[in-house]
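Can anyone check this?
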Amino acid sequence: MRILLVEDELTLAEQLKSTLSTAAYVVSHADNGRDAWFLGDVEAFDAVILDLGLPEMDGISVLKKWREAGHKMPVLILTARDNWYEKVTGIDAGADDYLTKPFHSEELLARLRALLRRSAGHASAMLACGRLTLDTRNTRLMLDGHPLTLTSHEYMVIAFLMHHQGEVISRTTLMEHIYEHDSERDSNTIDVFVARLRKKLPVDTIETVRGLGYRLTVQA
């Protein structure tokens, strides 16, 4: 899952990047509103963590421009303590949730997981697909209740497919959601990750839809 972090306080931004990366998210960072608006407009993100007090363009303006352009990614806004007006304004501008500074990293991760689940139509932190269970709280995939050993990229691929099970996901979409925006991308690496996953999962769990991509299917 790919997250856009928009925070101009660099110490906090580095802490959040570390927290998110440890939780198996791919993080892109913007430290001003103008860059944030551009990234959110041209790149694919599963969710955004958006501070409101930004240089060059404030967070509310950034959010409004995204929503006016039709971008629907869930947005978690960061607000100053007890600033109820910012919370209301942010929600009205199209934010999906808010978190008041200072906050615990565990709460940020929990709220982020909830946003990602809801945006994909899931209600529980445990996602099930046949014999597979994805524990989003502990970044763990289990087969018949037994945890599987996965590399970080294998986990990111299967996590995205689990969030969007039953949908056909193109290689391009998978690349957009497991790599940072400025990294080199090669569609062949997606095939490699899928091949490795297939060796660890029941037969035909990941279906190839010729010319279109991959689909996660329920296996008995």
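Reply from J.R.: I decoded it. The CA atoms of residues 44 and 176 lie 6 Å apart.
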